[in-house]
Amino acid sequence: MPCKVRATRHAADRMMERGISRTEASEAILKGAKLRRGRRILARLKGIEVVYEARPCNHLVITLYRR
Description:
Elements: E1 4-7, H1 9-18, H2 22-31, E2 33-37, E3 40-45, E4 48-55, E5 58-66
Parallel strand pairs: 1-5
Antiparallel strand pairs: 2-3, 3-4, 4-5
């Protein structure tokens, strides 16, 4: 069973306003370059940056943006 990627309400709002799909966010988390910042991780891929918290087989997206 694949890991789940969930979004906070804030992250879901940012996805809508910035035109970033859940697929793009998931791809950045799974395949992107990572930078750990305390409990949070910044993933970068194809001009998209996703800030998330990794939990066992469950990723919680905090916010995201385009670079």
